[in-house]
Amino acid sequence: MEARNNNDNDNALWVFGYGSLCWHPGFEYRKSALGYVKGFSRKFWQGNTTHRGTPEKPGRVATLVEERESIVYGRAFQVQDSTALPYLERREGTLGGYTTTISTFYSREGVRNFPVIIYIATNKSEHWLGDAPLHSIAMQIAESSGPSGHNVEYLLRLAEFMHRYLPEAHDEHLFTLELLVRSRIKEENMCLNTLMGNREFHIDLEDTGIDVRDEENNLAGNNAGNNLRENSFQYILQVPDTTLRCLKK
Questions:
Q1: Is the pTM of this model over 0.85?
Q2: Catalytic residues
Q3: Which residues form a coiled coil (predicted)?
């Protein structure tokens, strides 16, 4: 079925999330929808020194790179009030080094399409790291951490969101990095529970429920988890967050 514009969305403001916004928007929204944008590919080419890394040891986070025949799956949010955009401008723009562009969002069921704002990083960003061998990117992710948590958590939560909620997404870059990072965690005997952080995230795609804690300030301190594919997407952590490696029995 050919997608068509929904009149209810003509005057609505939507933001497309393809990274941490998928599981942790951090702002109030009226509703969300799963789907994709065309003409882009998701790449871990943007450096990060404020959320998932430090100036001395930057992490790597996702951006979109123009690629004519590609599509990127994610989650669109209908903005509820005037606080969302200033929040996003700080989180994604000031702290993350992203700029905005406009694209068309297509719902996964193929019956709707509408304009969305996308935060995207380019090689003009001060945090830009660019392309690199995937094993090098995986190593950097496995070794980086920042105020919002470990870089591993960012990668794995994004991959697991796609596996669970958008299984039709075929993202070779993302899923190859997931496998490489998981292999490195196993080889180095790193504690996955600790890397995933001491907190929980609730994802409910059917209602307007929100989690308004700032990404940059959402540090460990709540219940977290170790089962990456629970329906509730909650994580229950039982290992102290000061330990970065699991002890062998």
A1: no
A2: 92
A3: none
